[in-house]
Amino acid sequence: MSGSPILDSSGRVIGIHGQAEGEEIYDEQSGNVLRLKSGFSSGIPVGTFLRLVQQGGLPLTLRVENSLPAQLTPQEIASIAPAMEPPPAKKNWNAIDWANRGNQLYRLERFSEAKTAFERGIKIKPDFYQAWYGLGQVLYTLGEYEEALNSYDRTLQIKPDLHLAWRDKGIVLALAGSPTAAVTAFDRAVKIKQDDYVVWYLRGNLLRKHLQAYQEALKSYDRAIKIAPNFAEAWTGKGRALYEVGYYEEALAAFNRANQLNPNLASAWHWRGLLLLNWQQPYEAIYSLDKALAITSDNYELWLIKGIALAELGRYQEAVASANQALKLKPNDPEIIDFLNSLAYFN
């Protein structure tokens, strides 16, 4: 429910429920207006709330803890499973009922059952675009990209202005290796809904990573940031695009802004560290890389980059230890092995 707290396993507030994408639909069979949930569900992280409280100077006395929540035991997980179970299907269900069941099962990651539920809805009402869209989401998650694209195409035949379908079609086209077509789909999405900062961000990623169109990517990131100034991922993407074209000072400023907005965003620390290393600032690079490793210690690239930074400082034993950790995570990687061989002379 919007406005209600999100709790961790220790009963601590970690977020606030926001708005879920969806719509109200008139059901001709029952004569009722029914709610259909689809797309994303938004939430406000508690860190954002705390930052806004501080900025607003509100006199709230809050107890803040930074420890990890208690790990649930198998018995505890089993005890809450019934509460997560969707209601049993009924013989008289309409297409909306089946689509809502499909969405529930999709969020529970029971994808095969979700696929069946959406197909049941489509069988009852073949032009029910919401069920076609939901089916596309399931197929996309299952990695069945061609079938997912067929579902999105069917959705858009019925409802050409559904920006969610254009958005997700773009994502699947990118994953399927068709970046130019994906950009076209994203363009259609933002033409329909110009304030969808997620699409502008995804469009920027696509232009930067797959098409090396850095200036266009920067324009997309800037549109995302204009709409959502506190979207740390867009600042990180902008920093990466600026880094790629050699604007190091501007890139560093973008990464710093991302770190301010979300100190737990590993990718921003990662790329900040890489930038500083290439900028001949190994001490500062190691600081950023350690920040990233504290968040995601299983990233072999971070360990390798840290090893390179340590070697530049003449700390060869530490460099070897860091590179060995990288090799442990990615055995037989030629780049890591070459780096370790290059250090043999100094040990």
Write a brief caption for the model.
With 347 residues, the chain is mainly alpha-helical. It is built from 17 helices and three strands.
Can you describe what's shown?
The chain is mainly α. The protein has four domains: 1-61, no CATH class; 94-193, Serine Threonine Protein Phosphatase 5, Tetratricopeptide repeat (Alpha Horseshoe); 194-253, Tetratricopeptide repeat domain (Serine Threonine Protein Phosphatase 5, Tetratricopeptide repeat), CATH 1.25.40.10; 263-347, Serine Threonine Protein Phosphatase 5, Tetratricopeptide repeat (Alpha Horseshoe), CATH 1.25.40.10. The chain is 64% helix and 9% strand.
The span between the termini is 60 Å
Structural class: mainly alpha
Gyration radius from CA atoms, angstroms: 24 Å
What is the overall pLDDT average?
Answer: 88
Structurally, the number of domains stands at 4
Q: Using the coordinates above, name the CATH class of the largest domain.
A: Mainly Alpha
CATH architecture label of the largest domain: Alpha Horseshoe
Predict the CATH topology of the largest domain. Answer: Serine Threonine Protein Phosphatase 5, Tetratricopeptide repeat
Report the biggest beta sheet as strand number plus sense, adding barrel if it closes: 3 strands, antiparallel
**N-to-C SSE string, H for helix and E for strand:** EEEHHHHHHHHHHHHHHHHH
Say how many strands there are: 3
Please give the order of strands in the largest beta sheet. 1-2-3
Global geometry: globular
Query: What is the share of helical residues?
Result: 55-70%
Total of DSSP H or I helical runs spanning 4+ residues = 17
Strand content: 5-15%
Instruction: Identify the CATH homologous superfamily of the largest domain.
Output: Tetratricopeptide repeat domain
pLDDT under 50 segments (min length 5)? none
